[in-house]
Design goal:
- The chain has helices spanning 2-10, 16-21, 27-52, 54-58, 65-90, 94-111, 121-139, 143-148, 156-175.
- The chain is built from nine helices and no strands.
- The protein is globular, with a radius of gyration of 22 Å.
- The chain has 182 residues and is mainly alpha-helical.
- It has one domain (25-175).
Length: 182
Amino acid sequence: MVNQKNRRSRVQFPPEAFMSKMKKRPILVSILAVLSIIAGIPSALICLIFLLIRDEMITGIPMDGTLLDLLLLSLFVFSVISLAAGIGIWNGKKWGWWLVQFSSVYYILRSFSMFKQEITEETYLRTAISILDIFLLWYFFRPNVLAYFNMQKIKKIKALLILIGIYIAFMILHQLGFPLKF
């Protein structure tokens, strides 16, 4: 009986081998993942519902049906991307890191366009969001966060240039008529 009790005391849950393979997720990564998932699910569902009942909506909106479809479809895609980013960063996936970083760069660079407009309450909101995005951009390049995503060897300047290049490609598509706002 004593021998069996000793065996049980040696069994730990979760097993040490399992725990040693788990990466410690930084707290802000956890918070951002949960918020991205919480925001992504209802946004995607709302856009999908609006796409399905589009005909009833068009009568009250002074917008071409095709333009409305493109706008709703792009919002749906970006909602799914938000959901995917949340899942990716929760699980420590490199593609999740890239999605979050692209989102931050996108919003930071888009915020420069607001300086051409007159100052309103929206300007203050966008400025606050840009400051938050600059913080996230910095935070996701911290050594412990890069380690969580197994990206310790990434060249920061190269990554930023890639992200800016993707942003420029999005802006070119936008100038060609694709409604790429999120």
